[in-house]
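Summary for the funding panel

The consortium committed to producing paired sequence-structure records for every protein in the target list. Below we show the first two records in order, beginning with the earlier of the two.
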Amino acid sequence: MKKPIPFINDAVQTRDFKYYIFDWDDNILHMPTKIKMEHLEDDGTWKPVEVSTGTFALVRADTKHYRAPGGDWSKAFTNFEDAPDTTHFIEDTVTALEKIEHGETPGPSYQALKKTLREGRLFAIVTARGHSPQTLERAVRVFIKYALSEEERAEMMSNIRGYRAWLGGATEVDFGSDVEELDRYLAKCRYSAVTYAGFKQRMQDDPIYHEKLATATTAAKPELAKEFAIRDFVEHVFHILRRLGKTDRAISIGFSDDDKGNVKCVSNYIRSELSKRFDAIKFVVYDTSDRTIPKGRKVCVSGQMNLPGF
């Protein structure tokens, strides 16, 4: 039986290059995962409590009233790490998406990720969690299954094939099944959980960040890790485009995060380093910490751009 000819969207050739970096928790989805902490009671004892990521962003600096269990931060985020025979992150992602189906408001960058996937654009997930890249990619696949309609998934596949035909020279006979093409597309994206052991080792092995980590405070290290992950994605995108001889076209990269500390850190990093090293790339950062602003607040721009979907 002759293989059906897939629909290939050749119109992607007219697009500029826009890529996206997303924090996950409370930016894309309001996850039910809880952080284990202790709260100082009126009688002077510390009582175990579990807080949401949104609450944690507010109380983490209140060291007078909140602390990690027994002061050990390695015990606070056990729900945010991979463990043998557990799929907490995937299950929590399904739960968060099901709540949206029942009317709960999604994270401010939920629609932006949907648009990114529909258009077949490269993206990165950068999160403070401790999951492997494979686990984060699985969560994106769950997002595709639940958040995109059948028509939107078809649009995504036509765009993915369109980019591969345009930038990779693929023809109709070269394309595999939807599963194979989706695998190829998602493999080109980046998934960085900055407290994952493998990620921390890569950061330690980098000569620049090895030196930065040596002098950083404990509080500053997660922000440095996000810097490292962002640099990794920017380099990844730039090297792909340079290899294809496409760096003469407008390139822009957007980053969104609901943590004000991360937003400030990344904004400063873009101004002081990334925008100078990659002066042909336009950058924008969105602060999505205020839930009353549906798509977040633009706080830092390098170059002139306006990212649709944010």
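The next record, for a separate protein in the list, is shown here:
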Amino acid sequence: MTLIELLVVAAVLVVLLSVLVPVISGARDTARRAQTAVLINTVSTATSQFREHNRRLPGVFTQEELASPSNLTGFTQMENAILDLAGGVDPTADVGGPNVFEVSLNNKSVRVNTRMIASTGGPGYLPLVLKGMESAVPEANGLAPARPEIDQIVDRSRGTAGVLAMPDILDAWGHPVLMWAKNEYAGERPHFSRLTSESEESPRRARFYWATNQGYLASRSQIMSSAIGAGIDAEKRQRSLDALLGDPANPDPGSGGEGGIFLPLSSRGDFLLHTAGRDGEYLSNFGEVRLEYRYAPGGLNIQAGAGGSLDRYWRTTQGLDDMLLGGN
């Protein structure tokens, strides 16, 4: 072959690769989204069945206990729910073994034996198997053996990473699936959401708490472009949580929208399953840094900020690559 012929062949290959690589990547992402959709539907069905049978959402700890400062290692709501959906509570187990650990929140302690999770003798609501440590992830078809150290928050009392023992549910990209659950003891006229269950500003309880998922959202693997990560200003994190969990069809008529701020009256559901999508960041769209998301009532087309020009600092949750599924 002559040099010109080689150059022509190389150019053709470059063109083919430029066409095929995005197609193959897009097909892979489509397949992973479909696989993740099946997974979160399975978890949603299990959660709804548990509630129908037990008249409460799954979880051995309340939302206020999970959101309290005593939750030093960041035990999450999904991990909390797994104990009711797939088992694992073992009061007779000896703490200190390779498969046994103890979670203590607000003077309530639970011993967990990971060998009992997803066993044949368990509650059987969640039809997922517990994978071994040698298993390959991402695979959205089972319980991952334990979240890696980078996905742990630091135990503020000891300066160490959290417990590396509790299995989690990963989506098809290998990212953890979060569960936001309604506080069923919120009482009358609660806040819609708060960061923690302990506040000096107001004794009122909240329907949802950011700290129930701080185990992931405050970890080293979540960079600052995640709008609900620990590095974001508290007020902006609060607004983003309202935007994520609020029902767009039911705004609070008393919130008024002053300064572009509306508040939800009700949530997307009594629980919400939330995955980060392909980019691996919660409330971030492929690396676009958004300091704040805001709740927007359905039918309200918000294209500008309070000053009338396009606002570069906040958005609604429309168009995110995150996957969300609400349930009751």
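Regarding this second record: The first strand starts at residue 100 and ends at 105. Residues 24-327 form one domain.
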